[in-house]
Amino acid sequence: MQHRSPIVLAVFTAVAGLSLVAGCSGDSLKESTPNSSSGTLGTPDYSFGPTTTFMPDCSSMPSPAALSTLAGIPLADGTVIATGTCEFRGLNDQSRVVTLGLLTDPVDQTNFHDLVASVGTTTPLGDATVPGAMLGPDSTVFALVNNAIYTVQTNVTDAPVADQIPTSVAILGAWLTP
């Protein structure tokens, strides 16, 4: 088997070299035409896919101080970790986390529902603090309010995340209360 390694390497190098030469041929350059007689370039047509719930920071979420009071531990400023999602880590122990999501884009909301459905079943909470709130199979508490999905998951103690659902409900209730 060891005697084949140089042969495989040589074949791979040859194929890569041919691909590079074919990809760099100047034929495609001959087909391009100037944009206009004025010499200005047109506006590029960027197509990055569907829009998403973009957040430059976590200012649309509850403050770290408010979260700290509800979670029972000091939390640092939030960090955007995904589409519409912020993570607030413990100041003294960064393994302690409160994760909040605010999904306003219909595509993001559909993706969220598809993901939750693919993982397991959701359960209505029946908690008066957050009417209509649901519990996902991963112990995420979420609610559809004013055409947005609000999600909360807490992991701030040594207990399993499922045992921390009351803290998530308290945070979601406080977040949704004006």
Automatic annotation (TrEMBL):
Against PROSITE patterns, the record matches this protein to: PROKAR_LIPOPROTEIN
The protein depicted here goes by the name Unannotated protein
